[in-house]
Amino acid sequence: MDKSLIKNTPILSLVVLANPKTIVFDKYATKDVKNKIIRADQLKVTIEKWIKNHNEVNLAVLTMQDIANELIAHSIERPDPIIAKYEMYLPKEKPVQPIAEPKAEPTTPPISTPVPASNSTTGHAPPVTSSNIKLYNALKQYRYNTSKAENVKAYVVFNNAQMEEIIEKLPRSNDQLLKISGFGSVKVKKYGDGIINLVKTHG
Questions:
Q1: What is the pTM of this model?
Q2: Under 8 Å CB-to-CB from 165, ≥6 apart: which residues?
Q3: Average pLDDT score over residue span 87-109
Q4: Which of 30, 91, 183, 186, CA to CA, is 20 to 30 A from 116?
């Protein structure tokens, strides 16, 4: 593409404050800098006013996409010096460590006491066995990934007791998932599809 197009394209630089209660200490800022700090509800009006004052610019959508792709291709990520300075004080996130799948049993298996079946009336959780360990690991990984994406604690997605009940009852529909303790309509609507897909795949 024509590189001069990028050089000659006017650029509007703004700092948009999403939180209306944000306090900006701009006592020593120049007027030009102060004018570039706006609230989120001022964004539409600011852009419309800027376009009106730069009506000589008339770029087609495809041209704008070309410019964006060109800028992305030459973008260089620069480390934030503030983060680098205080990184050693930030808490370290530990990824979920899945339980290793059991090795194949020998030809002559050792004699062992059978594990009793889960009793939902007494609240005993089902044990992690070779038949459900894949679902157990998949649910833990889903909970970890979802909590990180939403920036919430893992137990907000579902706690250990709820995960064990999912493994025990293997819900395959939203109606069945609603019967799991702690799963209301809001939680089912939010996480139901993901959990049910895991049950169908690994259950």
A1: 0.41
A2: 120, 180, 181
A3: 62
A4: 183
